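Predict the structure of 2,3-dihydroxyphenylpropionate/2,3-dihydroxicinnamic acid 1,2-dioxygenase.
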Amino acid sequence: MSLSLMCISHSPLMGFNEPAEGVREEVDALFDRARAFVSEVDPTLVVTFGPDHYNGFFYDLMPPFAICYAAHGAGDYDTSADEFVVPEHIAAGLAQYAVDHGIDMTISRGAELDHGAVQIPETVLGGITKYPTVPVFVNGVAEPFVPISRIRLMGQVLGDYLATLDERVLLIGSGGLSHDPPVPRWAEATEAQRAFLLEGRHPTPEARAARQAKTINTGLKFAAGEADIQELNPEWDNAFLDVCESGDVTAFDAYTATQMTLDAGHSSHEVRCWVAACAAMRSAGPYVTRERYYRAIPEWIAGFGAFFATTA
Ligand SMILES: O=C(O)CCc1cccc(O)c1O
Ligand SMILES: [Fe+2]
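Done. Here is the predicted structure for 2,3-dihydroxyphenylpropionate/2,3-dihydroxicinnamic acid 1,2-dioxygenase.
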């Protein structure tokens, strides 16, 4: 019946590191507008596109994307470990429609979803149990990456199905923009890191705390100009936001994974979640921008952006 769109960067460091003066207030105000937007569109169904960072999805089996029929939070960085309230018939309807329309969809009947999929819904919806929600996992860290055109088509096909439902659907995309946090990569990983990347679910509390402390500390060092990670790229981020605003979602197809890594860092692939969400939104027709926000926030290791839209 209706689709609306809300894409926002996540960063688990938001709750740990203080950004430059005035930035916290600016982002708080953005989240106030996000909550007001949710109230306005009054969703009856939420569909989230979120990545994972080797908390729920590992190299023992790494799909490019997956519809979750059931999922719960991993609880990393103090995010919710609640069970999502998933309307299974809608998840199943989406998956069936996707496979019927040329998308090789993976499903999960019990996904664990980390801050990448939980932080933004939790923050803007007041928890992950408040609205019936179908979480869609989109791989944003683990090579190989399928072409962006496949992500765009996946979003478009899911949007086609959602537009047939008698629901007010809020699409949430979470991730990106440019950033390069210290997530291990298989090609350069040590044996211990490879063991983790292969099957590192449910770390000990000590291992989790050590991992998080390292990332939090990297954010502080990055802001001081002392971290050995790629710079944020505000120009790239704003060009990406331009494509979101344009509504010409096929223009996303020009992005290649290799160039994205070079230009915008190893975690820029999280923007796949935005691509899928924008494409789903666009399948319902032209849309109008309701919010565009951008700030490079090194303390959070985030080219931090937002883009909201409603049908024109
Ligand atoms: O926990 C991790 O491995 C990465 C954490 C992380 C840090 C900054 C921005 C992000 O988007 C992000 O996910
Ligand atoms: Fe992330």
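The pocket of fe (ii) ion (ligand 2) is lined by residues 10, 51, 53, 116, 175, 267, 270 (CB under 6 Å).
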